[in-house]
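Structure representation.

___
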Amino acid sequence: MSGIIQEKTKVAYLGPGETFSHQVVDEIFGDSAIYLPQDDFPSVVKLICEGKADKGVIPFFNPYEEHIRECQEELFKTDLVATNVHKIDIDLYLASNRIRLDEVKSVRSNEHVYKQCDVWLKRYLPEINFNGKGSTAGAAEDIKKTPYAAAICSFKAALENDLDILAKSIQNTKNFTLFFVIQKASSIKEWEDYSFFCFKIKDSKEEKMILDILQGHRLRSSQKWDFPHPTEKYTLFFLEFFGSYLDANVVSFVAEVKKYFKDSKLVGSFKDSITKRMVEI
């Protein structure tokens, strides 16, 4: 039995159970993983860097909360690389512990959730304070001990905590999240066909410079994302292109671009482009 346990992949994610991160781990790994729930996303990253987890699951993109900056910044500081992209639809419920909707005085959930259901909240709970921290499942646990509070969470989290459903599917339309499966670069056995890079840049001129260097090495971008920092004077520029990280033209591209951009990092190595995955899934 111990031999079987040792062969399982240790996967870190934002816990406790029944978070959307937990759902992703379950859908990808199922019974082949040892589940390691963490209190926040930096802890997920730290556990992998320390070798206490083989892989981790973190969110990267949501159409209503594009700047999942906490995860993007954490990745930039490490040698971790994303090797898989997983998309899930986000279905949000408002749940309570034996109170009615008109008795709710505060709402709790993960900090990224508010923008994903702000249309409903502004219509039905316009005067209520939103407390954004922890996870959706953690919020479901917390409100059992907090009078006149409600949680925005998944149906499973509400069910797990024996909560009443006050409203279902309160999320804005077409609400989904892309999650990355991340691991140490040194543990990657085979590099895939698409490379995904991130650069800290100051302006559009620097972005054009990177694209010109890319074209000069006969590489073509398949996806671009710009995430300006809300307070600092820089933008996280994400660039995906066809070419394995060890291909000769990719190696020469990386070598040249690092001459001008010290703050750059390989973020992912994927079998298919993110754009294609978003359309197909």
User: Anything to note?
Assistant: Residues 228 and 276 are 24 Å apart (CA to CA).
